[in-house]
Design a protein that fits this description.
By secondary structure, the protein is mainly β. Helix content is about 0%, strand content about 45%. The protein has one helix at about 125-130, and strands at about 5-15, 20-25, 35-40, 50-55, 65-70, 75-85, 90-100, 115-120, 120-125, 130-140, 150-155, 160-165, 170, 175-185, 195-205, 210-215, 225-235, 240-245, 250-260, 270-275, 280-285, 290-295, 305-310, 320-325, 330, 335, 350, 350-355, 365-370, 380-385, 395-400. It starts with a strand and ends with a strand.
């Protein structure tokens, strides 16, 4: 197992009444760490919040007051954002937008759900039925993040759903690649009898226009879902991509797979199973020439982990190390709605002691992202639940050396 040293944990963002989750960080040319994340509009995972930015000028120890860059509204929300700095200094944030609808007609009976009801947003008990994905978008900043463009829609056709997780990457020839995952026949993340594919969108005009470029992985037998691609360009010019996987019909999480391209992402090797369990991933090249992948670990003892590779192609769990362990609360005082996602939407997460083997919505930890500072210190950012009586997801940053 790889050894890490000089470990320290720091709080990035913690709200009083809402969750902060699903962050991504990149090191800018000026040395700053710039992170974007999702602020939920509720005290639980819902994927209908707003896109927020925070910055660290000391390598991840302290973080600026969060700044909203894509605000929520009564009818829209955003989530799963990523950040990228282009060669000319332009910043691009990519994200998903959903329609967060209330009932348009008077109901004939009460909803099966009795939550959420809040002072700010009112009665949203029907939203797990009316929530809809509206599209993938980007915003751009030419002044280091002080001001941002209006949202630019990303053409993901022929996909109907194109969920993003990580930021874009720019090729030496100026082309910009965006990894996402989705379905041709359906708008939702699950269902329609079609497995999820991962794909690349590409822009050759600085992010104003996008087009489907290539398929990263797809199982036409609809057994394996390939999701949340994490892309990196290696020193030799090859592209490598990790993907989260699930096996149908149970949706049980399986080991991550890896695909490789030697033509700038136009074609890819068949998916190859790694012996690494966890999801989703983020990876970087280290100053010493090695490569690092980090990922969430959503089974006991939970937390965030990493693996080192010498060449970026061959990865082995024997080189795994723990960045942060835990993140699951022990007790919750109040009943709360479960996640809005999936077939159990609208049901309650019961109060009381949390069973670590069956934590329900509280297993939603991790989503790590990683950057290396100029002094060699590594900053891994992720979300976990705090230990309040009614826990909230917060953002943490763990600094270490390897």
């Amino acid at each position: 197992m790889t050894k890490i040293t000089d470990i320290s944990h720091h709080t990035m963002v913690q709200y009083k009444d809402t969750c902060a989750n699903q962050t991504q960080v990149r090191k800018l040319k000026n040395g700053d760490l710039l992170a974007v994340f999702n602020q939920e509009r509720y005290p639980f995972h819902h994927d209908t919040g707003q896109t927020v930015m925070t910055r660290s000028k000391d390598g991840g120890i302290t973080w600026s007051e969060p700044t909203v860059v894509v605000p929520w509204s009564q009818t829209t929300g955003s989530w799963d954002c990523g950040i990228c700095e282009l060669n000319d200094g332009t910043l691009i944030i990519n994200f998903n937008i959903c329609g967060f609808f209330k009932r348009g007609m008077k109901p004939n009976q009460p909803s099966w759900a009795n939550q959420p009801i809040t002072n700010e947003w009112g009665d949203w008990t029907w939203t797990f039925k009316t929530l809809g994905w509206l599209g993938t978008y980007v915003i751009k900043s030419k002044d280091g993040g002080s001001t941002w463009s209006d949202p630019i829609p990303v053409n993901v056709r022929p996909l109907k759903h194109g969920g993003v997780r990580s930021g874009c990457w720019q090729l030496p020839n100026g082309g910009i690649l965006m990894g996402l995952y989705g379905r041709i026949r359906g708008y939702e993340e699950e269902g329609e009898g079609e497995s999820t594919r991962s794909a690349l969108m590409r822009s050759d005009d600085g992010g104003d226009n996008w087009e489907y470029y290539s398929t990263l992985a797809y199982d036409p037998a609809s057994i394996i879902d390939y999701e949340e691609p994490a892309l990196l360009r290696l020193r030799d010019g090859r592209l490598v991509c990790f993907m989260r996987t699930h096996r149908n019909p149970t949706s049980d999480a399986h080991n991550m797979v890896i695909v490789v391209s030697d033509d700038d992402g136009f074609s890819w090797s068949p998916p190859k199973w790694t012996n690494i369990w966890g999801y989703p991933a983020d990876l970087i090249e280290l100053i010493d020439g090695r490569y690092l992948v980090v990922y969430g670990y959503r089974r006991p003892p939970y937390g965030t982990r990493g693996v080192i590779s010498e060449d970026g192609i061959n990865w082995d769990v024997k080189n795994e190390f723990i960045i942060r362990e835990g993140g699951i609360p022990g007790v919750v005082i109040k009943d709360r709605p479960s996640s809005s996602l999936g077939g159990d939407a609208g049901l309650l997460q019961n109060s009381g002691s949390i069973d670590i083997d069956h934590p329900g919505v509280f297993q939603h930890i991790g989503y790590p992202t990683v950057a290396q500072n100029d002094d060699g210190t590594i900053a891994a950012c992720y979300h976990e639940w705090n230990d309040d009586a009614n826990p909230l997801q917060i953002l943490k940053c763990t600094r270490f050396k390897i």
